[in-house]
Design a protein that fits this description.
The chain is of the alpha+beta class and 158 residues long. It contains five helices and four strands, in the order H-H-E-E-H-H-E-E-H. The chain starts with a helix and ends in a 13-residue tail after the last helix.
């Protein structure tokens, strides 16, 4: 009987600690693949061969595609996407920071960060192979089609 009570107490304490953990939004594979696929379709319709790389908020590659773009474009898409994810800023902005030696920072337009509707940063997408403007537009449209933002929402004023 004492043993059963001790087991129950251990289970209760273990579950109390687990319940204290708060879930945080994250970029799942389904959403990352949807972003990649939307951008690839948009680029194909526009006649561009691009590479698309989608990263989580820690800078880890979640989804990637390169159908017809050069190996250099593939590397650039990854560079742009990782930068947007870890710096939580578009590569259009990071290109103006005058910090070209900062780790993982992209200095070429075409990467956009990914935010939930409530402003939680969950990753970034990088596109390369067309003009920088198209690359940015492609990533932005794909993120928006997935229900995400590419900049944190502005606080509502009272």
């Amino acid at each position: 009987m004492v043993f059963a009570g001790q087991v129950a107490m251990v289970i209760l304490l273990a579950s109390a600690g687990a319940q204290a953990q708060t879930m945080r939004p994250f970029l799942d594979f389904k959403t990352a693949d949807a972003i990649r696929d939307h951008c690839m379709a948009n680029a194909g319709q526009a006649g561009h061969a691009v590479a698309v790389a989608v990263f989580d908020d820690g800078g880890d590659l979640v989804s990637f595609s390169n159908h017809g773009a050069s190996p250099a474009a593939a590397a650039l898409a990854q560079w742009k996407g990782r930068s947007a994810a870890v710096y939580r800023s578009s590569t259009r902005d990071t290109a103006t920071w005058n910090t070209p030696a900062a780790p993982m920072i992209a200095t070429m337009e075409g990467g956009v960060p990914l935010f939930t509707r409530d402003g939680t940063a969950i990753g970034g997408v990088g596109v390369s192979g067309a003009s920088s403007e198209f690359d940015t537009e492609c990533g932005t449209r794909a993120a928006e089609a997935a229900g995400l933002l590419v900049s944190p929402p502005k606080p509502e004023s009272d």
